[in-house]
From TrEMBL, chain A:
Residues annotated as binding a ubiquinone: 93
Species annotation: Pterulicium gracile
GO CC terms: mitochondrial inner membrane
Name of this protein: Succinate dehydrogenase [ubiquinone] cytochrome b small subunit
Lineage: Eukaryota, Fungi, Dikarya, Basidiomycota, Agaricomycotina
Single annotated GO MF: heme binding
Keyword entries, A-Z: Iron, Membrane, Metal-binding, Mitochondrion, Mitochondrion inner membrane, Transit peptide, Transmembrane, Transmembrane helix, Transport
Chain sites annotated for binding heme b: 81
Annotated membrane topology: Multi-pass membrane protein
UniProtKB/TrEMBL annotation, chain B:
Protein's name in the database: Succinate dehydrogenase cytochrome b560 subunit
NCBIfam families: succ_dehyd_cytB
Pfam families xref list: Sdh_cyt
UniProt-listed InterPro entries: SQR/QFR_C/D, Succ_DH_cyt_bsu_CS, Succ_DH_cytb556, SuccDH_FuR_B_TM-su
Record GO terms (molecular function): electron transfer activity; metal ion binding
Keywords per UniProt: Heme, Iron, Membrane, Metal-binding, Transmembrane, Transmembrane helix
Biological process annotations from GO: mitochondrial electron transport, succinate to ubiquinone; tricarboxylic acid cycle
TM annotation in the entry: 75-98, 153-175
KW Transmembrane (keyword) present: yes
Species assigned in the record: Pterulicium gracile
Amino acid sequence: MIAYRPLPNSLDCTNGRTAVYKGTVNDPTTFPTPNRTHVHHWSFERLLSAGLVPITGAAFAVSSTSYPVLDAILGASMVIHSHMGFDQIVVDYVHHRKFPILGPTANWTLRAVTVGVLVGVYQFNTNDIGLTELIVRTWTA
Amino acid sequence: MNASLGLGSAFRRACMTPSLRKPSTFRNVLPRRTITTQPVSQTDATTLLNKQRLNRPSSPHFTIYQPQMTWIPSIFNRVTGGALSVLLYGFSLAYLFVPGTFDSAHIVETVASLPESVKYAGKFVLAVPFAFHSWNGIRHLGWDVGKFMTIKGVYGTGYTVIGLTAVTTLWLTFFK
């Protein structure tokens, strides 16, 4: 990932690109308070990515119709992995510090869409042939 | 300078002559400054500074960097991952809202009716991001456990990922 160094909180960007001082130039810079959950967030994200390696491999190796559990795990983990990826894009490019309205809007839109996607994936895995079988059939159509 | 030319004492004497020491003498000789200053409060000064900061141009960035293995695959990882996720999200939402149109039977039927060339092109376009993101994701996991954290490691794994992506893409496009 390309990581941009965040601006300190005392700098506000009113026009989306230029930093403007809050208070006076002599006010100390404030930073977000450290929180242990940030570490768990990273660990969870990395474990999920690592988990997708054997899950993807298994999807290639076995026939999905006989393993609906695989479709369920693959569907859920890919959606969560995607959600976290989109969330990082929102944080990097439309951060609420720079975009006070667009940032939170993007964040909540993403959450709502992800919930819809999870329901959609569940419906497809339950009522149709499931994700892996769909990919296999489409690929060889 | 004056001292080295032996003019130090003469110059000093000229300046220190009682008539020249009076401030009014200089005020009449030197041209009047046309700029006037005025006291500004702390808040007004900050407002003025912020107004000026908003007029500052954006310095060149991003495009001034040479394309390198250290950052091109990094942004490509985000682009490919984003593209694949958009496909997953798009399909899932389409199935959620219009299950009658986006069910597996219709999708497979539509794809099957496409000309062979379009099918191969489509498989290629999907295989590239999938292969790259998968292999580069493993490269990232390597870094996450502290491996290949050198310039040599970044380039070695980078070329490996490109090679594996090429092979996997060809295999998925033409042999699957």
